[in-house]
TrEMBL record:
This is DUF4124 domain-containing protein. Residues 1-19 form the signal peptide. It comes from Zoogloea oleivorans. Coiled coil: none annotated. Residues 79-103 have a biased composition (Basic and acidic residues). Residues 30-67, 79-115 are annotated as: Disordered. Residues 9-64 form the DUF4124 domain.
Amino acid sequence: MFHKLLVVLLVCAGQTAFAQSIYSWKDASGQVHYSDTPPPDGKARTVKQPTLAPGKTAPTDNAQPSYVDKELAFRKRLAEKTEAEEKARKDKADSEQRQRECSASKQHLAGLESGQRVVRFNEAGERIFMDDDERAAEIERTRKAVERICK
């Protein structure tokens, strides 16, 4: 039991020693001193700064990114690439759908303008032939649809 307690106390004491700064200064006779407390006059050079957290050091200007930062950057690039591919696929599908609608509208307009008899169905499912006024209104509506869809 005593050995375990001794190990715990040494570990705790070691942790506090790591958290302190070490100061260096010269006295009036030119002697260099090192201590964990600064001199009374405050004219000392800090030799060791405490670390920010266990296992991490203070950031430097030329520090390389850590593996965690590299992994996060990679995942971000991968997500952006996937998103761009998905957007391109959706744009292509929308474009193809628009082309099919445009083609169908143009074919319908050509059929209306050909002069052939055009049939539509009423609510009861009976065939009704379009008269000239209905045909003109349908041609105008289809032309507007072609202009809107086939930009």
